[in-house]
Design a protein that fits this description.
The chain is α+β, with helices and mostly antiparallel strands. The chain has two domains: 82 residues, no CATH class; 100 residues, Endonuclease, Chain A. The protein has a four-stranded mixed sheet. Helix 1 runs parallel beside helix 2 and helix 2 packs antiparallel against helix 3. The longest helix is centred in the first third of the chain and has 17 residues.
């Protein structure tokens, strides 16, 4: 973020082509090309950008984006959801959710039911797609492995389906395999199976 508060105590809100008509498209290109992660380095807070009276949407969306990444970096899930909802009409909220990775969707449904979760725990073939944490016992009580995570981690079927699970089980994990196709076809059934496993 190559802008800062100037000598007049304000931030110059003239962002070049971003401020022009259609500038939001340039913002879209800038923030959707990362394959893994985005780091935002800035010396100003979103509130310091006075863009409410700007003619075009680019600067306004840029301010919203800075608020969004700050909420994500701070782990404020509720604030993140509010910001995303403000950008999407109510009818598009479900569509937006459907674009999230499967593990995030499953974690989201479990958290709605009161469970605490963590996604993408660990590395390689030992990665847990969704880990369910029990506050009372202070431990992870179930690890969900999605087929896509395991397939990416190893091309060897035996290593994938047997050794990987055995390794995690020996280290105290209760492992449950979840197939992406099942999630797309019948989400309620998948969640019910997970709840049943947690209750067993």
């Amino acid at each position: 973020m190559g802008y800062a508060i100037g000598e007049n105590g304000k931030v110059n809100a003239h962002f070049g082509s971003l401020s022009a008509d259609g500038g939001e498209n340039r913002l879209n290109v800038a923030i959707t090309r990362a394959k893994k992660k985005i780091f935002v380095i800035t010396s100003i807070e979103p509130e310091e950008l006075k863009v409410d009276n700007t003619k075009n949407n680019g600067p306004k969306l840029f301010k919203t984006y800075l608020s969004y990444v700050r909420a994500v970096a701070s782990g404020k899930k509720k604030e993140t959801e509010i910001i995303l909802s403000s950008l999407c009409p109510a009818k598009d909220t479900q569509k937006l959710s459907a674009l999230m990775p499967v593990e995030e969707q499953i974690a989201g449904e479990l958290e709605k039911l009161g469970y605490r979760t963590e996604t993408n725990l660990g590395e390689g073939a030992d990665r847990i797609s969704v880990a369910v944490y029990d506050k009372k016992s202070d431990k992870y009580v179930l690890g969900l492995q999605l087929d896509k995570e395991v397939m990416e981690a190893s091309s060897n079927a035996l290593e994938r389906d047997v050794f990987g699970t055995q390794f995690l089980t020996r280290h105290g994990w209760e492992i449950m395999r979840v197939w992406s196709r099942d999630w797309w076809h019948d989400r309620k059934s998948v969640i019910s199976s997970i709840i049943e496993r947690l209750s067993g």
